[in-house]
Amino acid sequence: MDALTHRSPGPPRGSSARRAATVALTALAPLSWGTTYAVTTELLPPGHPLFAGLLRALPAGLLALAITRVLPRGDWWWKAAVLGVLNIGALFPLLFLAAERLPGGVAATLGAAQPLLVAGLATVALGDRPGAWRWVCGVAGVVGVGLVVLGPQARLDAVGVLAGLGGTAAMAGGVVLTKRWGRPAGVGPLTLAGWQLAVGGLLLLPLTLAVEGVPERIDAGAVGGYLWLGSMGGLIAYTLWFRGIGRLPVGATAPLVLLSPLVATVIGLFLGESLRPLQALGFALALAALLAAQFPAPRLVRLRSGFRGTGSTDPERVAAPQPAAAPAVSPPATPEPDAVLPGAQPR
User: Fold this and answer.
1) φ/ψ of residue 150, rounded to 5
2) What value does the mean pLDDT take over residues 218-246?
């Protein structure tokens, strides 16, 4: 007779619903970031990406500080500065440099590698050891995005590749450190987002004035684009992003960035572009990877035949308390002290 497989009860339905709601709200951040390329190319003055980054960060950060009226205290002065540099100040210039020297598809594929970088950094900073499932989801996401956005005209530039990887690494480091440090007591995600946007904007201010300056002409469309980037793509998106990082496992948050290039692809379809069959396959693969990363690794439930010496080798089952095994119907004449009965917990 096969041994019964005992399973611990799953999380309450209310807990699952709250987690799904948190994932959905957090996903709004990369969804809005996916509109940045279309807004920049269709509405903003050309040749001023740093100015766009400045207006995306500094006004939003100052507005958040005016609303919350909370400044960092103690060691959070330097923590907020580090996070602001990683998530805003260093990220924007590096991504803009990569966009100038690389095709958009190559830059998007480099950005899709963020879940893999987060998994590696989390091992060092958080003591988190990602399993094979997270690595598989990360690789599948990169491959999927690559199939969507890479074309035969894709070219590689060493400086652009380093800038793209640097921007991806900066944001990955920001995700991991935000998870490690959390938030000070009484400080909400809006305040934390305001600190970082203000720091990043102040860092971009002299760089923008020295490199680009102010566009000669800003029309009504550009004003609308800057307002969108600073509100939904800036303050609202980063508030939801930091809220999600605080509530979700880091392995569930990082893959959501795959939504950004996917949204950019969908917008391109509305603007008259088309998907080849291989691109459609990549789109489905990337979407499946980010969805799969929101769930635990699948367990392979093996039916044990009841032969002597068989038992479960699943480490989670070994660690969990197991009910006592039923006594054997026909005990051997001479007991074997090291034998493992079917259904008993291996040692």
Assistant:
1) -85, 135
2) 93
